[in-house]
Amino acid sequence: MPLGAFPTMNGSVDEVLNRPYEECGVVGIWGAADAAAMTALGLHALQHRGQEAAGIVSHDDERFYQHKGLGLVGDVFSDARVIGALKGHSAIGHNRYATTGATLLRNVQPLYADFEFGGLAVAHNGNLTNAATLRQALVKRGCLFQSTTDTEVFVHLIAISLYATVLDRLIDAAKQVKGAYSVVALTPTDLIGLRDPLGVRPLILGRFSEGGWMLASETCALDIVGAEYVRDIEPGELVVINGDGVRSLKPFADPHPRFCVFEYIYFARPDSILEGHSVYEARKQIGVELARESGVEADVVVPVPDSGVPSAMGFAVASGIPFEMGIIRNHYVGRTFIEPTDQIRNLGVRMKHSANRPALEGKRVVLVDDSIVRGTTSRKIVDMVRAAGATEVHMRISSPPTKHPCFYGIDTPEESQLLAATHTLEQMAEAIGVDSLAFISFDGLYRALGHRGREEANGRYCDACFTGDYPIELVDKEGKLVA
Amino acid sequence: MPLGAFPTMNGSVDEVLNRPYEECGVVGIWGAADAAAMTALGLHALQHRGQEAAGIVSHDDERFYQHKGLGLVGDVFSDARVIGALKGHSAIGHNRYATTGATLLRNVQPLYADFEFGGLAVAHNGNLTNAATLRQALVKRGCLFQSTTDTEVFVHLIAISLYATVLDRLIDAAKQVKGAYSVVALTPTDLIGLRDPLGVRPLILGRFSEGGWMLASETCALDIVGAEYVRDIEPGELVVINGDGVRSLKPFADPHPRFCVFEYIYFARPDSILEGHSVYEARKQIGVELARESGVEADVVVPVPDSGVPSAMGFAVASGIPFEMGIIRNHYVGRTFIEPTDQIRNLGVRMKHSANRPALEGKRVVLVDDSIVRGTTSRKIVDMVRAAGATEVHMRISSPPTKHPCFYGIDTPEESQLLAATHTLEQMAEAIGVDSLAFISFDGLYRALGHRGREEANGRYCDACFTGDYPIELVDKEGKLVA
Amino acid sequence: MPLGAFPTMNGSVDEVLNRPYEECGVVGIWGAADAAAMTALGLHALQHRGQEAAGIVSHDDERFYQHKGLGLVGDVFSDARVIGALKGHSAIGHNRYATTGATLLRNVQPLYADFEFGGLAVAHNGNLTNAATLRQALVKRGCLFQSTTDTEVFVHLIAISLYATVLDRLIDAAKQVKGAYSVVALTPTDLIGLRDPLGVRPLILGRFSEGGWMLASETCALDIVGAEYVRDIEPGELVVINGDGVRSLKPFADPHPRFCVFEYIYFARPDSILEGHSVYEARKQIGVELARESGVEADVVVPVPDSGVPSAMGFAVASGIPFEMGIIRNHYVGRTFIEPTDQIRNLGVRMKHSANRPALEGKRVVLVDDSIVRGTTSRKIVDMVRAAGATEVHMRISSPPTKHPCFYGIDTPEESQLLAATHTLEQMAEAIGVDSLAFISFDGLYRALGHRGREEANGRYCDACFTGDYPIELVDKEGKLVA
Amino acid sequence: MPLGAFPTMNGSVDEVLNRPYEECGVVGIWGAADAAAMTALGLHALQHRGQEAAGIVSHDDERFYQHKGLGLVGDVFSDARVIGALKGHSAIGHNRYATTGATLLRNVQPLYADFEFGGLAVAHNGNLTNAATLRQALVKRGCLFQSTTDTEVFVHLIAISLYATVLDRLIDAAKQVKGAYSVVALTPTDLIGLRDPLGVRPLILGRFSEGGWMLASETCALDIVGAEYVRDIEPGELVVINGDGVRSLKPFADPHPRFCVFEYIYFARPDSILEGHSVYEARKQIGVELARESGVEADVVVPVPDSGVPSAMGFAVASGIPFEMGIIRNHYVGRTFIEPTDQIRNLGVRMKHSANRPALEGKRVVLVDDSIVRGTTSRKIVDMVRAAGATEVHMRISSPPTKHPCFYGIDTPEESQLLAATHTLEQMAEAIGVDSLAFISFDGLYRALGHRGREEANGRYCDACFTGDYPIELVDKEGKLVA
Questions:
Q1: Which of D461, D464, D437, D436 is nearest to D449 (CA)?
Q2: Signal peptide span per the entry (chains A, B, C, D) (predicted)?
Q3: Buried-state track D87-109, b at ≥16 Cβ within 10 A, e below 16
Q4: Rounded mean pLDDT of chain C?
Q5: pLDDT at A77 over 70
Q6: Which chain B positions have a beta carbon within 8 Å of A140's beta carbon?
Q7: Distance in angstroms (rounded) separating the CA atoms of residues D294 and D144
Q8: If we measure between CA atoms, which residue out of C30, C36, C87 comes closest to residue C64?
Q9: pLDDT tens for residues A305-336?
Q10: DSSP class of A361
Q11: Which residue, A35, A215, A46, A61, is CA-closest to D343?
């Protein structure tokens, strides 16, 4: 489809409600040479949080510059002239992931707008739970929407706020939205960071040794550009970064941490440190707990790469069963490889994973993976492992059963499609074709994160995808739209 | 520039004020099979009104479909699948021309927006003279602008109007804008056409024999799809077209015709009939009047193709001097051919025109062109004709001297760059290197259009580019911005 | 289809035999600054000879540079960096036209090859009549073909020639091929031009006032870069251009002129001068002869633009009937506009031409066109003219009836599809729906070219498409392949 | 650079000599449904052997079909229509890697040519050592070269061979070339596979359970399409595959195995089985031998991912030191990410690898990698590991020191740039900044491959990059060109 093709448009609230939930990464730089290039590198380090589009807005004390595109950071910013045209010492950037083909260029963040008080660029990681409700009210008021992103709701709220300063307007907007949001924003003078009152999504503050500040979704983005970790932005905290340093505001009445536990299990990069915990160590420790809880007699422990590797290592160490790379991941898999016939479609998961027969043949295998969603991928992997000669396959999962969808920024199918929501453990084991199946317990999970167990951790994490305990009101979903 | 690259952004009113004036063509179809394809064909016939971008929005009783792109209509809609995806029996389309490289995709019309009352698509030919003033006020009110087009001002006024129906909102918006505008708009039920109270830009109504209606900037767009001409939309008239036929509204207090005389001289296609006059006949008749007013002894009458052809034919017939195609136009000239060196740049106009030496050598030549703007092109053509052996060159121009810029939708440079604004007739003749120079008189011009002369035509046309008599207030230009 | 997609390949001789005949333009420059840019401009002036692909090879005394692409010259060479990368003071270029979608990049000329004696680039306008026969012999000998062009046959013959110098090898090759060929070739030291012994296709020599030489298919290519016309290369002449000037060789035993008369009628640009005759004057004079031979009572003379314009002017002058632009050509027609439905397909020719109703309504019309091939286009134009209100339509054609295909470089359908090959004059008139139809006589045609009539011109032109008298043996066609 | 841009051309033998050495993967399918799709999947599994271009030629009993492109297999064949257009039950394919930007489309394999006896497509993995010498002779003879690949030398030798059948011609050609070559070729009836007399590069035979045969560089390509491993093609063996099954020819006098030992160490995929050995097991066993030979007191064993992982695992098991993923690889690194400033360039290797601080901080680290080439990458990784807090870094390399370039198909820099060629072990340790450095011994390496040590393996592998003992004559390099 040529430049500018928008397949269809439709203003119905239904579509907005059913849009794919976004997973994202954000970066902000203030006061550093090559701010746009640094931002691009940070986005590159956060590529695992969103691979379908990327954008950067920079400012050079005179004007804003912008570049956005569909694809990986390395593709969108592959031309040195593009980076060179993004002048200035401050910049914000965004990676975007969406589950359908509907990724339109107009949805790519950061969003930029001219206001009475000047320009403002905004990028955001997370999901608003009252976006559709607010959008309906804003449209009623005469606001014109150009995208289907939550971020534009934010921007309109800023535009129509009666407060005078951009800061007060941003706070005004933040108080009206509900949901998970880690926001970075850029004005002609300031870099602003904001985390929702529960701090569901991460946001990290870093500093350059030669001066200048950095905000990013994960510490791995600081590492790639050599920025030093300062601290995590606190839940409900707003930071204003400029020549005077970092000013902290706490505009919310009752912030308290409910950090997303799934960031530890799967979503964050293993070399990141979130809320003081090493993601890698957390995953390894879950493997240790899993081995204690659900040990089994076997010949090899095999991870489903890459996310299952640390847990499998922990399981192997704790169980004494040898660790083997029994499954090889093909790192050249793009999203574009079209499988043209039924015969080939059946080859399925083998595009991404292949069995390492010598490590599996004639072995009793403990297979360690991070989660079971629909179960179809698990089934294919189990079949592949058996076809390579495994005599037994015991699946161990480093998360509790995923029974509920996420509304806070992780892409998950609806409840009816989650295997654990509709099957007992035994039925699940049968569905994926394993000899035994076990998930980490809540106690084990939270012990691995340094608590004494589930009770102690209670109310300190968002684990709604496992428990259904949603800490932020699901306004749009609960039909308050029509109210 | 890669997908999605917006070189720079800047919200300053200055830039908005200095934006290139747009020349455009619009088409609307209601109740016809293949509405989008018909619209594309109509835009193709109107390609001379704008070559840099094209767009179509269609509706199929359920939803809107949109496709836009930079380039000619035939390029933007070259793929049958693109046209096929624009479903429905109603559609509107737009051709756009802009004089600088700043043609951004987000500026391409029609503009579409979701309103509380449903979707609306709007396209517009002309120029608002208070667009910057209104824009400033709208931004102050919290409106977010995505483009730099006048059309978006219109759309925001519709969005914030307190009237209930889309029709009342559209009229409300129309009453607030000043300028030249021929608008086509599409709602889920209606095709709407609107001409400003002076009817500066054309808008024509046509009908399909098998049912269905068409609006277009010129009759040549009706001809290409076999639609029958019904009538010109009247100045200040708004038509609502749907299953009940064509309903006419006259929302303005004091409409009266001030049709753009330059449409006859240059801008419209010769086979179009505007306000009851054949453009081709008008141009030929101007040539006749020119010969009467400014006859000269010569051997050949040579047009500067293509726009000078009919006037040169009229001149030849009236003067008895043979008509010759002494200049050949190269029809393959694209806009993209970059001339890399000074030497080649000096070859200049020869990219588009070449001298037909046998028709010029040793001849006294009457050269007929439609207008002199900066004079640089005229100079190059005269030099080329002399280099081909013409012994005398007498330039005859089928318009009065262009002394003032147009603010109503024709791209012209500012006054200081108009040769006629700063030179006497003798100085102009010298500047372009001719033996004699004459422009059509106002009396001659209006006689050619069927009036008894200038007096009778007075106040019935907009001829501001020749007279400086601007019939519509130049709000933005006159600095009312700061008021 | 992505870069490098070759839909299918097939080595059969049948396909090679049935390949589309090519129409082409060639340019060569020696000893001029900006040689590649000058070549691009020359190709631009020759764009009417081939619009589907363009290529340039240059040499800077050290190495060769090459750029080729599909599309118009202005598109292929739109980037100043591309022209800039084609360094050197000598260059050759080629425009290519092919009638089917099979234009592959590997077929785009000039062809370049490394030989034992160094590099050589070759481009050619025309058609070899023993290309398939030679190709078969070369393949048998172990030659590998990369393209389906005649030019590659030439290049292989040069490669395997036993002569020592490139010049002798080129002559050796030329003596083995049969057909129409105007060749330009570039070696590290020389620009070479060669015209076949009958000189069927044109080739012109020009000179730059500041030094340097130019070869081109037509004089219009000299004009655009300001080169002075020196002379036409003679039939069978080979010129070697380098620092010593222009050396002329006559390697063929019996050269004599059989210049293609269709170049005058249709193919060449009107402002070109070929073999001493102005194309424009020739066409006008044909119109004069037509009026004398086939005068008719009528109200207007209307050309089918653009090629019919000069003849119609001549007809009008000779007959005293007013000349009118009753048909307008839309110059924005690209090749890519896909007509998606039957309804729209029926609108047919109107994409390119539209009727100018005021010049046709109620008139008896003499319609002047250059030729009738299949008759379908003529029929559509006649219908359009009648629909615009013409009361009578008299078609006058500025060529004799086209009864035979061309094998020498003009694209024509096979005999069975030529209307004149299968219909009497009366049947043709009925088929295209005119009140009367007349073609120029051979006597009239050759009188218009300055001869006393057909007899005097006999054997001085190739008019095989009208007479079937093919002056060059049709080796491939006549089945000598199997011999 | 647009379609068809070939930056420069130059026929000098020097350039041909200095062309980048190619690493490649090949696939062939005979008698299987969806042969092209299967070939694409096989190439996808072999993507690690070449990432810059891919091509497939298929045959459907009537004609050949071809598609080639620059980029990954998944990009070149991303469009289902492209695969769909490659009809037939037989196909061959090729992945290509080249170290410079000079990857031209015309160099992409398979090469196809029309011969007297019909069409033939050829693809080849390896490097000829007398390609330039042969090429010079062929050009002298009148052969035209279109590419700079060794494969085209092969194809020309086939074209000019005096033998009658394609098979005899192929053998004739094979006897004239020297070097490492695993060739797959496709005729209208047969799939042909050929391995050079020393079998330096791998070539595997597989079978589909539902009928049909497959050739591939590695067994992992069989696995992805579910083909069963039959056997390795033998050194010097030529197989002809058609409806009669697999016919084996042994055209060479003295074949004997000298398989490339570097395929085990680095180049092949770990899940492949080559010459009966599991690559994964071989690598793990090298790690075991390394630990035995060069044990060191440390806290963690850390692989440089991905190729260092199995050896590090073996080292960890044998040494009892815990295995940790102390370095994380970013799998989204494309080749296109341009690092725009010096500051960013210095960040270097961090684009691809990042330190996992919690696994390194305060630890004595054994770092396991597959080889040291220039040493620059090693230095950056060591620095990164130290910056993450490692107190000691001990580097262990799973190959002997790389002291000589490969001329048989593995891309290596010239000798002067190989760190081991110019430095002692102590100097190397200092250059890369480690506390200790050890390479596997030859005895250890060959023990890991199942031999009793170096002596037993002597003459059974090509280990020229470590020993300088080149088993195939380096004709071009040794200046026999001028003879």
A1: D461
A2: none
A3: bbbbbbbbbbbbeeeebbbbbbb
A4: 88
A5: yes
A6: 116
A7: 55
A8: C87
A9: 988 999 999 999 999 999 999 999 887 755 44
A10: T
A11: A35
pTM, two decimal places? 0.84
Give the C-alpha separation, A26 to A306, whole Å: 23
Calpha distance C189→C247 (Å, rounded):
13
Amino acid C399: pLDDT = 97
> A164 at the B interface (CB within 8 A)?
no
pLDDT in the model for residue A22 = 54
For chains D and B, tell me whether 3 or more CB atom pairs sit within 8 A of each other: no
Instruction: Look at C3 and A409; give whichever has higher pLDDT.
Output: A409
For D198, what's the count of Cα atoms within 13 Å in the CB-facing half-sphere? 24
Q: From the list D5, D9, D68, which residue is nearest C82 (CB)? A: D5
Residue D220 among known ligand-binding residues:
no
C307 is in an annotated binding site: yes
Residues of chain D predicted below pLDDT 50: 1-21, 99-103, 335-340, 349, 480-483
The answer on pLDDT for C145 being more than 50 is yes
Please list the alpha-helical segments (H only) found in C296-346: 309-319, 342-345
pLDDT of residue B78: 78
ipTM of the prediction: 0.89
In this complex, the residue of D10, D105, D115 whose CB is nearest that of residue C4 is D105
Residue type, C272: S
Residues 333-372 in B contacting C (C-alpha not used; CB under 8 Å): 333-334, 336-341, 343-344, 347, 350-351, 354-359
State yes or no: is D143 an active-site residue: no
Mutate to test the interface with D, among C72, C146, C161, C169 (most CBs of D within 10 A): C146
CA distance linking residue C192 with residue A427, whole number of Å: 82
CA of residue B132 relative to chain centroid, distance = 21
Q: Which of residues 17-56 of A touch B (CB under 8 A)?
A: 55
The model's confidence at residue C14, banded by pLDDT at 50, 70 and 90, is very low
Interface contact A428, partner D, CB < 8 A: no
At A465, the amino acid letter reads C
Peptide bond just before C306 cis, omega within 30 deg: yes
Q: Give the model's confidence band at B479: pLDDT under 50 very low, under 70 low, under 90 confident, else very high.
A: low
Least CB–CB distance from B159: residue in A5, A106, A142: A142
What sign does the dihedral D379-D380-D385-D390 (CA atoms) show?
A: positive
Amino acid at site B443: D
The answer to whether the annotation marks A61 as part of a ligand binding site is no
Q: Which of D44, D332, D335 to mutate to test the interface with A (most CBs of A within 10 A)?
A: D332
What does the angle CA D305 – CA A380 – CA A349 come to, to the nearest 5 degrees?
55
How sure is the predictor about B129, in pLDDT bands with cuts at 50, 70 and 90? very high
Helix (H) or strand (E) segment spanning residue D74: helix D73-76
In whole angstroms, how far apart are CA C16 and each of C149, C175, C476?
9, 22, 10
Given a cut of 90, whether residue C163 has pLDDT beyond it is yes
**Would you mind telling me the total number of residues written for chain B in this entry?**
483
Which is it for strands D259-260 and D461-462: parallel, antiparallel or unpaired?
A: parallel
CB-CB under 8 Å, A79 with B139 = no
Structural tokens at position D465: 């990059």
Residue at token pair 């009467």: B292
Q: Does C104 touch chain D (CB under 8 A)?
A: no
Which pLDDT belongs to residue A78?
A: 78
Contact C367, C382 (CB under 8 A): yes
What letter does residue A266 receive in the DSSP assignment? I
**CB atoms near residue D231 (< 10 Å):** 12
CB–CB contact B2 A76 (8 Å) = yes
At C291, list the tokens.
């009026």
Backbone angles phi, psi at B171, to 5 degrees: -65, -40
Q: Is the pLDDT of residue A21 over 50?
A: no
Of D74, D313, D341, the CB nearest to A332: D74
